[in-house]
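HUMAN: Mind making up another protein with tokenized structure?

ASSISTANT:
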Amino acid sequence: MTKSVCSYSFFHSFILSFLLLASCSDRQEAKQFEADSTAVDTTVLHIAVMPAMNCLPVYYAERTGLADSFGLEMQLHRYQAQMDIDTAITGGHVDIAFTDLIRSQRLAKQVSLSPLASCDEQLSLISLKTKRVKRINQMKEQMIAISRLSATDYWCDRMLDSSRTNYDDIYRPQVNDVRLRAEMLRQGLIDAAIMGEPYATWMTMLGHKRLFQTQGKQPQLYAWVACESASKAQQKAFRQLLDEAIQRLSNENETELLCNILKQEYQLPPAIVDSIKLQPIKRPSVIRQYDTDEAEDWLKRKYENK
């Protein structure tokens, strides 16, 4: 996916108006996975996804029928915001979900969750191109859209700390819908937003400015988590499914399908998909204790300051 894809909110009135908008490198051919059908549950695996880069392999697996090779029958539950995935988890509607360690720790007080895999999901601070801002400490009295008590909120704190900017100097409206967050920036309704891919790159292609990104920085907060309803066999098969899908997505032969996913699931404009360049998705890894501790410590500090 490093190659070109395809040749790839006073404030509430604004939000009400725009909510309607929300309503790849060569490789060797992967060997066919031979699943032990006797070891995997035959019940449907319900998976909560959202338009984030680490969900792309799951969209791909659904469209290609790859899950069948792993003895999985899966059903995707599509959401536009992490808070909606929270509701799905606490309501018992899903078995596996894409979330972050901050939100999963909060949810752990209500439901039993098991860490499944850590995801290298990159976030960026994108500033409106009409603003004469080149550094974070120049954003006094401006609005940065985030989702509260999430990885975006954490990284906003980190950015303000590193630039020695007073928290009270920045307005942080909550815009949970990730597609809406990008659209509001595009329309100039907010000054800046913290967003993931592919929306951050889309905004830079429109001339908006990337002031900060989490690439190469720690902790790694995004993760797949499993509910009690997901068996150990299903969890293992899902991990294997992610690895295989990520490997296949690196094949240039999958470019057309990848384009369609970006247009339909991520709602990117076709013209953008035709020329967007995205970094390859990294294989999920084991969730580190450091990342979990950092999320827990940040949450404690957040509540203590309330």
In short: Residues 232-249 form the longest helix (18 residues). The first strand starts at residue 45 and ends at 49. The chain has two domains: 37-121+220-296, 123-213. Residues 37-121+220-296 form a domain with the D-Maltodextrin-Binding Protein; domain 2 fold (CATH 3.40.190.10).
